[in-house]
Structure formats: structure tokens, C-alpha cells
Amino acid sequence: MKLTPDQVEVKSELREALIKHRAAILEASTGFGKTTLTAEILKTTQSAWFVVHRKRLFKDVERTLEREGIDYGYIAAGRPYVAGHKVYICMARTLANRIDDIPEPHLVVIDEAHNVAAKTYDKIVTKGNFRLLLTATPERSDGRGLGEYAPVMVSAPPMTWLIENKRLSPFRYFAPSNIDRKDLKKQGADFSNSSVDDAFQKSTIHGDCIEHYKKHADGVTALVFCHSIKAAQETAEQFIAAGIPAASLESSIGDDEGDEVCEALAAGNLQVVTSVNMVLEGYDLPAIGCVIWKRPTDSLIVSKQGNGRGLRYIEGKTCIILDLVGNYTRHGLPDRVIDWNLEGKKKRDTEANIAVRECKVCQACFSPAPECPECGAPVVVEERVIKQTKGELAEIKQHEMQERKKERGKAQTLDQLVQLGKDRGYKNPKFWALKVYKGRK
Ligand SMILES: [Zn+2]
């Protein structure tokens, strides 16, 4: 397949980086076509491993190699190893187990390379003369960068560009109901299930899901991300009870069964699939026109993967994203440009460019604008003003500040001011009160 001009540019940048450093990361969001681009590189490579970590991801690679007429074999459980192929599609686990018996290739390509920190990859990443890491989110789940695996990163055009150029679908984003985020507690890389259960118990979100779906995306093929298998099953049941054909997809089921569910979804026999993380990767179904978040996540990777499932391009589609758990407050909108770097989260400014407005009338979320692009309601910027001071971020709640000013104004005498200072827990209320008092005169 002929590469697009942007792909050609990225490819030559990658080639240069590989020649110079022998290892490089390609950061490219869904829709860029990183498999297609990689296939072009494979054409001129002596031998290569294309390493994936889920069987489901095989298909996309197979299809591309097939289309491009590239000779390939397998290193995967249940598939016999036949020597002499140019490219091997490898399951990471199988490859790690057999790594000493199989000749090293010229180039090692690692797909979904944010997983590279997993033990399975220890032996794989040291092999080959050249190494290419592919990912949309070049960061390990613990927030560390991928710098230890490759010294250079090449970035594909951002999602906003891909949307403008019709390689990804545009989206509309609504955050119609919300859980109390104060209840969420981290456990490992994400929120613990029990804390999400607690947060849900205090909200009415379960009942709301169907209602919001019907309001914003009635009849549209949808994926619902839930925080637990139980929640996914219950949500599917609720959809069914509302007359909407739905099924839940769990991590315990095999790929074949997963395929059946996907086929039913593609054929329109199913309208909604609920899941925890089964459908995050490798389910590229252009028909998906709605993504619903009932899973609060602290992981930018999960958030990006989930939203990406709805953005596959088809003419005329606008994906509806219903964020019932406020994930946008942590990760911004799906097309937020992220300044990835090799050092990881510590270095990149995680909050600086999360500038999202939520319409109080229709709950649409959008980039700062004077009025809501959905309903035209004027945007009242009251609660969140983000100020940047010396590289440090200070979040000032304007509304709260005004309230405090009023409160201070009510304290007219010096004694009243001292009392207010005490109530607010100031270390030296008298000194503060005197300062305010003198300032008034
Ligand atoms: Zn609005």
C-alpha cells in the first residue's frame, strides 16, 4: 500500500534514528497506520520478529503482511515453527520461552511497547541488531519512560491532525453524571475495585447509563468500560432489560469466543458490549460509534486505548463519548496533545494542558471556548483557573476565593478578624488580623 506523505516522512525519520542509534520508539496514535509503515520497513529488512502480547493483535499484523506480500511465519503456541521465513509474528510469551533455540533476527519490532517492562520482554529486548518499539502511549504503566529501551523517539502527527485529515473520526464528549472522585483509591497502577464500588454506591450512575446512552447515542454500536467483571455483567443485563441487545466480554473467555461477540457486534446482532479491558486493544471495529466510561481510570494508557476504539474512521461518523466517571478531569479530552518524553511521567507536565470546559446545561466537554459548541450556552468560567507560576501549577478556585473575601469583609472588628483567623487555622491569627485591619485603613 502506498504510504501517505506523513507516513513517508515518519518512516525516513525512523530509518535515520535506527541507523544512528540501533533502537527507536515510534509514538503514533490509532489511525496513523503504524503497522502499515512498519511493513514498509520490513520489506527492506533481512529478517525480523514482530512481537505482540495478545493473540488478538495477530490478525492486524497478518492482514498487513499478507497484503504487502511479505513472507512470514509464526512463533506462537499452537503454531509450528518453520525456519527460514523473513518475518515471524511472535507471541511475546512463546518467544521468551523459546528464545535460545531460535536464531536472532536483524530487526526486533515490539508492538504495544508500553508493556515492555513486563518480565516476558526481558530476554526479547536485548536481541537483534536493531530494535523498533511501537506504541501510542510511550510510557510504562508505572509512569517511567521508555528511555532505557531506546534512546530516541519519533512522533507521528497528533490525533487532532489525524481527525482533521479524515484518518480518525471526530468525537463529541459528554460527562453527564459523576461519581464522587474523593472515594477513589489507588492500588498498583489503577484505582482499586473496592474503592470504585464505594464511589458508585454513593451515586445513581448505574441507572443513568442507559438513559444517557438513549439520549446521546440511541441505536449506535457501543462499548462500555466497567471497573469489574461483575459491573460489566450487570451493565449488560441492564441494557438487555431495556430492550437493547448487549453482552459482556470478560478476560476469562477465549479469543474465539471474543471473536464471536465481535462479529455479532459488527453484524449488528449486538448493539452494546461491556467489558473491563478485553476490548481495549486490538478490537478495531469502525462501526463502534459510542464509548461509555463506567470505569474510572488513573491510567492515561487505558483512557487513550478506550477512546481510540471509537475513533476508527468511517465517512460521516462522529463518535459519542459518555464519560460517566469524570476521566476527562485526569486525562483531558481524547485528542489532547501530550508531550511524551523518554523519561516518563515525572518529566512531562501531566496537568498543564488539561484545559477542558464542561457545559453546565448539556454536560458537553470541550476545549476552552466562550460558548458551548453543543448547545450554545455561554461558558461560565468559575471554578477552575489554572495559573502557571514558575513551572509550578497552582489551581485557584476563584469562586472559593470570592467566598473567602466576603467572609473576611463580614469580620469588621479586629477581634472578629482574629476569631476568623483562628477558625481558619492560621498559625498566627493575630498577626494576620492586624495586617488585614491595617490594610483597610
Ligand atoms: Zn452545552
Q: Radius of gyration, rounded?
A: 25 Å
What is the total domain count? 3
Q: What's the CATH architecture name of the largest domain?
A: 3-Layer(aba) Sandwich
Query: How far from one another are the termini?
Result: 77 Å
* Small-molecule binders: zinc ion
Main beta-sheet annotation:
8 strands, mixed
The strand line-up of the biggest sheet is: 12-13-11-14-15-8-17-16
Portion of residues within helices? 25-40%
Supply the number of helical segments. 14
Shape: globular
The beta-strand count equals 19
Query: What is the residue-averaged pLDDT?
Result: 86
CATH topology of the largest domain: Rossmann fold
What is the highest CATH level, the class of the largest domain?
Answer: Alpha Beta
- Class inferred from helices and paired strands: alpha/beta
Strand content: 15-25%
Low-confidence spans: 383-397
Looking at this structure, what is the CATH superfamily of the largest domain?
P-loop containing nucleotide triphosphate hydrolases
